[in-house]
Design a protein that fits this description.
Blueprint lengths: L1 E4 L10 H13 L10 E4 L3 E3 L8 E9 L12 E6 L2 H6 L31 E2 L8 H9 L3 E2 L6 H8 L11 E3 L2 E3 L20 H21 E2 L8 E2 L33
Parallel strand pairs: 1-2, 2-4, 3-4, 4-5, 6-7
Antiparallel strand pairs: 8-9, 10-11
Length: 265
Amino acid sequence: MLKLFYFKSADGVPNFGDDLNPWLWRRLLAGYLSDDAPTLLTGIGTILNDRVPKARQTLVFGSGVGFGGGLPRVDASWTIYCVRGPLSAQALGLPLEASVTDPALLVSGLAPTSGIQPSCAYSYMPHYINANDRWAGVCRRLGMGYIDPRQDVDSVFAGSRQTRPQAPPPTSIVGGRRVYPRGRTVGLASSVTRQGVRDPAERRRRSRAGASRRRVRRGHQQVLTSRHLVHHRRADEVAAETGRPQLNTGVTVPRADLVVTAGAE
């Protein structure tokens, strides 16, 4: 029998990303979970730190390293099948092969995919700390869907199915690099496209400003391509892995310029 360990906020605010744990593992390990079990199972989340409770045996499957006051105390009672990504593997002194992906990837084969008619091209889902009712009004004015991560898991899935799956943008390979088309930038503050800027000096200035904003974004969040969730990150998080779980083909986000950068969390 296994006792599931995952993050729960001290103030009791629900969070879809963490609440996926009981939803997922009860379906995959039906009959093997118990709150009184002596064996601990860590799953989805940045939960490998000094807060992991002591257990007779600890099993790690896809968790990430971060938060807390330090690294977990790993001893002979731990069995690490895999961690979320290469930074977590490095932090724990594991080989690169131990980094696989976020176990939330397993949700893609279990989440409902029908029953709701898509009604919008894009939906925005903030980090649960930043979620509030005002986002719903902003998204409504922009013609977007809004998915509140504080809802229960099934409600979030229902919200994701309101969003039409988006085909990836056309790309080309130039000099061994994948190049995306220009001139399709959309912003909350400005709708001016790069192609609309005729003055070369102004175009260079905007390009430098855009590069600076992108560097800031990377410090706080990972903006995934269409059909992925936005995963906000804290600046001090260790496990900023490249793993990109695709939770549901109905979950979409706008282009990067439409995503509000996360502040200090």
